[in-house]
Amino acid sequence: MRDAILQDVSERFSDTYFEARQKFLELAKSVKSYKSPAGGPGGEELFTDVAWFGNPDACHVGVLISAAHGVEGYCGSAGQVDWMRGGNVNSLGPDQAMLLIHALVTEEGCDLNRNFVDFSQPLPINPGYDDLADHLVPALISGPMLEASERAIDKFRKKNGEVAFQTARKAGQYSYPHGVFFGGFRPSHSRLTLESISDDFSLKSRDQVVIVDAHTGLGPFGYGELQTEQPSGLAGYERALAMFGRSVTSPDLGTSSSVPIRGCVDEFWQRLLGERHIYVALEFGTFDPENGRRVLREDHWLAQNPDADPDLARAIRLRLREHYDPRSEDWREMILWRSRQVHRQMVEGLRSSG
User: Minimal CB count within 10 Å: which of 100, 186, 262, 307?
Assistant: First the structure.
């Protein structure tokens, strides 16, 4: 068993987007692709690829999403490849289907998981972020300016508490395009892509849609937390609890490792389907949250300083990759094991509802 899953680890995970995409395309066979306006490091074309398995007219549909947050996509891609390679399509009943969305990634510099607000209405405000904007991504990431920013952040934390700080930093902001967790000024291309996918596969007409959205970076190393989100409320939490069991968490109950966030992907599903959907973010933990804060700060700084020293730029990218996609066998083994459990629970839940 141990040797088998470790062999699977080496086959499921990828080192580059292009390798991950090739694995997905080879297994999915029939794919609908949505071209991104962005390009790869060498100007290569990038795509969101979508594959449907099961009855095209199924009333009960599962959705697996990878790469809503770029570098986090290696984990979600591995889970999707594992589901396909494991022959799980054979477990689908006559009225069940699975939709795999590979590499749903935002390229405009905004956070897709903060982008689903109603832009026809006044945008949410985040006074805490306003206080910290110049310090969360300072103009310099070393020396006296960084030290002054860290002192300002420490002062804010001591005065307002850790929850207030994490909410200010992570809940979402709509004023600072170069800052962290920027939700955008308008619907992003990836948001429009998800809306197109929903239309193209008639998801609104289904009786039940269950979404598992893979993420990394929060929580204990290797543990996959099933997080519900506030748009679904406690009713959504109860639906997820019935399908996935007591490991499900809720920001409304204070059990989630995430603070409540604005404009999250679940807002889309809640508007589209209401009580006919279950949404969970399958969040795999990696390292210390403070390390996450540092690598995101460096990544945003690098985006504003494309002419930075090449060695420094390379080191920043490597640190970001390692935080959100640890290249260690133990972490990847844990990801596969938990993904299989969650995907099995998902299909069993769809079957029992059919």
Answer: 307
